[in-house]
Amino acid sequence: MLKRYLTVRPEGETEIDIKRSRFISYVKRVETPEEAVTFIQGIKKKHWDATHNCSAYIVGEHDQHQKMDDDGEPSGTAGKPILEVIKKKGLKDTAIVVTRYFGGIKLGAGGLIRAYGKSASAGVRATGVVERILTRGHHFAFDYTHWGKVENELNAHGYQVLNVEYLDRVTVTVGEEEGKEEPLTSLMINLTSGQVEWTPGDLAYIERLQEAEDDIDLEEDE
């Protein structure tokens, strides 16, 4: 499992107009090639009357599954720029479909590359990018007398408190990136004078929304 990577939020869409043509971008997080294909086919079925439904996806821990489709546009002018946007933004497990309704003005090869690249990029921006961080929940049990200080120090150090249980003792669950738990455990030992029980929990990804980047404008020779 990757310790951290970038992907899109679950799903999103947006629409832009370029020289009277409508470009509708659909973006979805996918975890298998089959899921990507199902998503693409669903958009094609929804927009069966569109001039083109062009697409691309990257799936896999090592980006091992990649595919693009020009869907009738001149070769290399649609699927490739969509795929390039996914790559240049460093995204994994991402599928994009750009649906085009032709508006009567031909864009030429260079214009198509820029249009599909701009549409894909706008779709990603509208959907949002997240960083997924592999995190383990650490359970710490200690006496109530330590809780006030522990709570203040965890907040001061920016730790993510996932859960607190108030039973015969306080049990707090703190999320920390896998492999970086030593400072956390040392802090908890110091705060409780060693009177703490530590139990490592399960691994799970947490997500942090990233700031929106400028849209990518692809050139004709890409």
How is this structure best described in words?
- The chain is α+β, with helices and mostly antiparallel strands.
- It is 29% helix and 38% strand.
- The chain has five helices and ten strands, in the order E-E-E-H-E-E-H-E-H-E-H-E-E-H-E.
- It has helices at 33-46, 79-88, 108-127, 147-156, 182-191; strands spanning 4-8, 11-18, 21-29, 52-59, 65-69, 94-101, 129-142, 160-166, 170-177, 197-209.
- Strands 1, 7, 8, 9 and 10 form a five-stranded antiparallel sheet that branches.
- Strand 8 and strand 9 form a beta hairpin.
- Helix 2 packs across helix 3.
- The chain is elongated.
End-to-end gap = 32 Å
Structural class: alpha+beta
- This entry's quaternary arrangement is single chain
Mean pLDDT: 95
| Largest beta-sheet details | 5 strands, antiparallel
The percent range for helix content is 25-40%
SSE topology string: EEEHEEHEHEHEEHE
Rg: 23 Å
Can you lay out the helices and strands and say which pair or pack?
Blueprint lengths: L3 E5 L2 E8 L2 E9 L3 H14 L5 E8 L5 E5 L9 H10 L5 E8 L6 H20 L1 E14 L4 H10 L3 E7 L3 E8 L4 H10 L5 E13 L13
Antiparallel strand pairs: 1-7, 2-3, 3-6, 4-5, 4-6, 7-9, 7-10, 8-9
What's this entry about, in short?
This protein has 222 residues and is α+β, with helices and mostly antiparallel strands. It has helices at residues 33-46, 79-88, 108-127, 147-156, 182-191, and strands at residues 4-8, 11-18, 21-29, 52-59, 65-69, 94-101, 129-142, 160-166, 170-177, 197-209.
